[in-house]
Amino acid sequence: MFRFEHAHFLFGLVIILGLAGLYYVLRRQRNSVLNQFASSGLWSSLIPSLDDKLNKRRIILWLSALALIVIALSNPQWGIRKEKIEIKSTDIYVALDISNSMACTDIKPNRLERAKLWTESFLRSLADDRVGMVFFAGHAFLQSPLTTDYGSSTMFARSADPTLITTQGTNISDAITTCMDNFPKNEEAQKVILLLTDGEDHDDQAMEAANKAKQQNIAIYTIGVGTAEGGLIPVRAQGMEDYKRDESGKPIQTKLNPTFLTQLAESTQGKYYSITQGDAIIESIKADVANMTKQRVAERAYSDYESYFPYFLFPAIILLVLEYLISIKWMKKYFNRNPQTLG
User: Fold this and answer.
1) Do 292 and 286 touch, CB atoms closer than 8 A?
2) Distance CA 143, CA 159 (A)
3) Using one digit for the tens of pLDDT, what is the confidence trace for 28-82?
4) pLDDT of residue 27
5) b vs e for 11-34, b when ≥16 Cβ sit within 10 Å of the residue's Cβ?
């Protein structure tokens, strides 16, 4: 199939045709005026600088070169094949813990900011897979549905903050259930939940929710955010910095729970990682996702085209070089053997 990639440039041919017509009209008018004073055979004697035939050749070369350049700019193409491609993807939900304990600074700058930075790196690594965002603390809510718009997903990840949920805690079962409810109902396609949390204050129903996820062909990958040593939870009270305290007034120590998170992941044939592993987690997860049964999300038809603009550009350059050469005084004798005869 033939086409011009940038067909709007072809309007330049109309301008070139107009210039050619204008030159023809002006040349006829000039010759008519000169014929009133002398016959054409005497013009070269009366006006030595007048070389009508050479000027005509230069104009033809100029306009021809311009026409070829315009065609080259429009990029003539020929379609060499037409194919249909099926786009498949793995659906992934990132469940991000935004509870108060994620403000702990046992990893820098703090748990939540570290999780957000990792999420951004993960989103940048994606190509065709669809991704959604779920935030959770005492309960979970859908922040962003499945999409390939990684820019908007990144924006939602950056907006994660404990103030988005008033009910505090770490309700992992609700996070898993919210993800399951928003996956498409496809029994064959495998799906993934990336759970970023410190695993603290997990409820007894989390393992039950994980077992239901496994039945729906969902693998849960848990990413522990924090350290086993843990740290205090900074809070702001009455305009002053303090730490979260228990009923006796003692600061609460929050610790990562890797044992529970490992059990949770392995119950769905997923894996547990520590966020301190950084981008190595992304490579490992992507390797697993590449081997999963994917879901068909779209089908696109496209044609490959071969460009032929050089076949017009190179002749145009040659014509411009010729036009330049015949304008040089000592070269005129090779291009204009009989200047007395007017066209």
Assistant:
1) no
2) 10
3) 887 787 677 666 655 555 565 566 677 788 889 999 999 999 999 999 988 766 6
4) 81
5) ebeeebeeebeebeeebeeeeeeb
The residue with tokens 């007017």 is 342
d(CA 141, CA 17): 65
State the pLDDT at residue 318.
92
**No. of H helices and E strands in the chain?**
11, 13
Provide, for the chain, the percentages of residues in helix, strand and coil under a 3-state DSSP scheme, each rounded to the nearest 5: 45, 25, 30
Confirm if 185 and 212 have CB atoms less than 8 A apart.
no
CA 246 – CA 166 distance, rounded (Å):
18
**Mean pLDDT value across residues 179-207:** 87
Distance CA 55, CA 237 (A): 89
pLDDT at 261 over 90: yes
Cα separation, 337 vs 321, in Å, equals 20
**Three-state secondary structure call for residue 1:** coil
* Cα 242 off chain centre by: 44
